[in-house]
Amino acid sequence: MALDPPVPLLSVRDVSKSFEGTTVIEDCSLEVGWGEMVSLLGPSGCGKTTLLRIIAGLERADQGTIHIAGTQVAGNGIWDRPEDRNVGMVFQDWALFPHLDVFRNVGYGVPRGKRAAEVAKTLELVNLPGMQDRMPETLSGGQQQRVALARALAPQPTALLLDEPFSNLDSALRREVRTEVRQLLQSTGMTAVFVTHDREEALVLGDRVAVMDAGRIVQIGSPAEIYQQPANPWVASFIGDVSVYPADADGSIAHADFGSIPLLEARHGPVEVAVRPEDMELRSDDSGTATHTVEDFEFQGADSMVTVANPAGTRLLARVSGTQSLSPGDRVCPAYTGSPAAAFPRSDLD
Amino acid sequence: MQPPAIRSSAVLKVVAILVTIGFAFPAGYLVWRNFTFHSDPLGVLFSQRTQGPLLRTLRLAVLVSASTAAFGTALAWLTTRCDIPFRRVWQALLPLPLVFPTFIGAAALIRTLNPGGLLSDWLDNLGLVWDVEVRGLFGAWLALTLFTYPYVYLPVAARLRRLPGSAEETARLLGDSPLSIIRRVVLPQTATAISAGTLLVFLYAISDFGAVQLMRYDTLSRAIYTTRLNNQPVSMALSVILLVLAAVVVLVERGATRRYEHAAPVRSRSPVIYRLGRAKPIAVAFLAGSVALALLGPLASLADWSIDGIRLEASGGRDLLVGWDDVWAPTWHTAYGSILAAVVSVAVVLPAAYLVVRHRSRIGTVANAVIVSAFALPGILIGLALLFWTLKTDIGSHLRNTLVLLVFAYIVRFGGQTMRTSQVAVAAVSSRLTDAARTLGASWARRFRSLELPLMAPGLLAGGGLVMLSVMKELPITLLIAPFDFPTLTTKAFNSIEEAFVAEAGIWSGVLVVLSGVLTWFFIVRRADHFD
Q1: Which domain holds residue B359?
Q2: Long-range contact set of residues B399-402: C-beta below 8 Å, sequence gap at least 24
Q3: Do residues B91 and B208 touch, judged by C-beta distance below 8 A?
Q4: Do B492 and B437 sit in the same domain of this protein?
């Protein structure tokens, strides 16, 4: 697309859904631009898969509207069936048709006349040439994953929805396939929405990340924004290791018991600061003024994760270089060395 | 636009309701007719005429259930858990007595074991005298035990094969002796399979017509048959009593399954094999004797009848009353009727299976209960109800002597057999697959044709196969309502046995046994693991 069309490719507005009286999705809104990749990240049971299925048309929302490429497909009495939405979907268990070979799986959504050409082209794209006659159960997990992707891409859908597409792969393979899929989708300019509960996956794959909790979208932003400027302590801790540490804010500086922390936004009074472990340093107790004691030390190779606590027992995580060796009971002086951090009024947690 | 899931389930519900009414119709008509007939079932119940057949039915069913439970379980134990030589051969042979309709089995037993039969001829040569007469209660009990024990053997063997060895090994490590392990560990875990099989046998025994007719043992079903022409009120009243008996059994079965619902799931692993030691020759002799009596003996006597007849004709004696056409036409009718009943059964039960599995609808639950319970309805009742219906009502009279009515009766009698396999088949098609097909743009019709049907095919075929096998061996319904120009192998064989045309009976029975043998092999022996 040379020109950005004026409307977003996918627009979800105020969608709600409940099953038998239990609210699963509440007032979710999301816009996805042409060629953009968005991750829907959340713990299991937060409703992210339901939202994806509502977009696909496999579930009906109770409220709200959905537009695809400017056309309304759901809401206000309109409801297009999933088979009419031209949205591709890759399922968590891939849902390959077990009785059909690779050719007939990939060609299932392609009109008969174009089938042979499209299937060959798509299999080339996902790097599975010459596999057309194989049955799904004879393929490895990674190959099945690619067949599922090819099957969803072959009819040239307007957008691609992926429901935990890598969760069935073992962790070594997952990383490799993830990179492949990202490159492939970027090269085809495909608009995609991923559902995942794996924060690393969400950060790597998404141009933007939408964080969901208990049926609501709590924050949408670029991976860096989500990581560095979490909207609340829950997002901060869900998106990565974090210590929510008490401090007293005075404008753009917060004073903690070990020293000061620069803040993103000016605040006043008691706050909790989201402190990332990699933003902490642990200095040895040269002057005898150490405030913290090492509670736990985990050597992880390139670096180590250290848990320290102040006399009141409040814990703080620090990621230190693998060459620094500490033992439980050592006295240390923590120091904040990172960029400005997010702070929340203390009452947030009460 | 409405989503197709909702629209199609409305159609499914209507179809399921109609099918349910169809399955309930014969029993319903019987009860209704009984009251409008003034046949006074309560009065008849306490009359001498009724109490005899009722008591005889109960006595026979209890005896047969007890003996099949013991016999079937023992055979299953020996062939799955003991170091018997040629285990796979025994496992293949032991379900095979199912190929005999009980009336053919009973006729063969009479021919083999009675004085003047094969056994006494053979013993005569050895200078021994044999004068045990196989008839009456003893004969009916023997025939039903020998030809229905597979209903216990199959589920028990399947269960014993699947029981994980770990519990038995644990008991052993805790110092239990093998006999006490069987009693305290194995039997409790097998109890559901034994009781399920035994209930099936009990139902079979109260509904059986063939064996009791040939053994001249006057149970309810035989009394219904003999009084149907000249004393219809009594016949009707007896029918209601039999109906109530079957209903009680079904209710007991329901209660029992509910109680056992929480039985521990059984996972497949290699079972523990027990060493028989010095008891091995006795065990082998027991197995060989069982196969000889229930399978080889009857086969030998069928062959004996046919060969005798053919030899007699060839040597210029009595001419056989059967030509090639007389064999071909009933064979074709049997095959045609049973295939038709099987296909339609699968088709009409499938909507209810969908409702139960996919939509979890209440209509599905009711349909399921009615369709499955109809399987407990003795064939003689269905035949009688529909016969009277065609004789007494205007609508019914149009269906008198038609294939439609016969196939309808077969479906009511045996269609319930496809319910479980159909439900398994429907459940086997994951909703993710249909979801995937929908996002790929496939319509309802295309999804059904390209995904659901091929994926369900093995399960549907298995259910249809069971119906085919049952219809092929069916006697009382066919006897009562088959069109005059539609003789089947069972009616031909039964009439020739009753009229003592032994050679003809042998030929027709032989063809029937070969046909049902092929089906038994495909749908029962090869799938023996699925009967748990």
Answers
A1: 1-28+317-532
A2: B401/B481, B401/B483, B401/B484, B402/B483
A3: no
A4: yes
Q: Which 8-state DSSP code applies to residue A327? A: -
- Domains along the sequence of chain A with CATH: 10-86+158-235 (3.40.50.300), 242-349 (2.40.50.140)
B362 shares a domain with B271: no
Pair B453, B475 in one domain = yes
Token pair for B276? 């028989």
How far away is chain A from the Cα of B13, in angstroms, using its nearest Cα? Answer: 22
Cβ within 8 Å, pair B443-A58: no
B450 interfaces chain A, CB cutoff of 8 Å: yes
Tens digit of each residue's pLDDT, chain B (532 residues)? 333 344 457 888 898 999 999 999 999 998 888 777 665 666 766 777 778 889 999 999 999 999 999 999 999 999 988 888 888 899 889 989 988 999 999 988 888 877 777 777 777 787 777 777 788 899 999 999 999 999 999 889 888 887 877 778 888 788 788 788 888 888 888 888 898 889 889 999 999 998 999 889 989 999 989 888 888 778 888 888 899 888 888 888 777 665 554 444 455 566 778 888 888 899 999 999 999 989 998 888 888 888 877 777 777 666 666 677 778 888 899 999 999 999 999 999 998 888 888 887 888 888 888 888 888 889 999 999 999 899 888 888 888 889 999 999 999 999 888 888 888 888 888 888 999 999 999 988 999 999 999 999 888 888 888 899 899 999 999 999 999 889 999 998 898 888 877 788 888 888 899 888 888 888 777 776 666 5
User: Per CB distance under 8 Å, which residues of A are interface residues toward B?
Assistant: 53, 56-58, 60, 79-89, 91, 93, 95, 97-99, 108-109, 151-152, 155, 161
A84/B441 CB distance under 8 A: yes
Report the b/e string of B54-92 with b at 16+ CB within 10 A. bebbbebbebbbebbbebbbbbbbbbbbeebeeeeebbe
What's the confidence (pLDDT) of residue A170? 85
> What is the per-residue pLDDT across B284-300, written as a single tens digit (0 to 9) for each?
999 999 999 899 988 88
CA A227 vs CA A78, A214, A232, B368: distances in Å: 38, 20, 11, 55
Q: Which residues of B touch A151 (CB under 8 A)?
A: 436, 440
Query: Nearest CA to CA, how far is B261 from chain A (Å)?
Result: 26
User: Do B435 and A155 lie within an 8 Å CB cutoff?
Assistant: no
**CA A292 – CA A312 distance, rounded (Å):** 10
Residues B105-157 have pLDDT tens digits of 998 888 887 777 777 777 778 777 777 778 889 999 999 999 999 999 988 98
CB A263 within 8 A of CB A340: yes
Residue B85 and residue B202 in one domain: yes
Strand A243-256: give its sheet, edge to edge: A243-256, A259-275, A343-345
Global pTM reads 0.81
**Integer Cα distance of B469 and A166 in angstroms:** 48
Q: Find tokens 């929510």 and name the residue.
A: A244
* CA–CA distance, B399 with B29 (Å, rounded to integer): 15
Instruction: Please check whether residues B227 and B338 belong to one and the same domain.
Output: no
ipTM: 0.83
Domains of chain B: total: 2
Chain B partners within 8 Å of A93 (Cβ): 432
Sheet of A159-163, strands arranged across: A87-90, A159-163, A191-196, A37-41, A208-213, A216-221
Give chain B positions within 8 Å (CB) of A80.
1
Min Cα separation B3/chain A (Å): 6
Q: What is the DSSP letter of B130?
A: -
Asked if B360 is an interface residue toward chain A (Cβ–Cβ < 8 A), one would say no
**Substitution target from A50, A83, A100 for chain B, most B beta carbons within 10 A:** A83
Q: Looking at beta carbons, which residues of chain A come within 8 Å of B451? A: 97
Same domain, residue pair B225 and B324: no
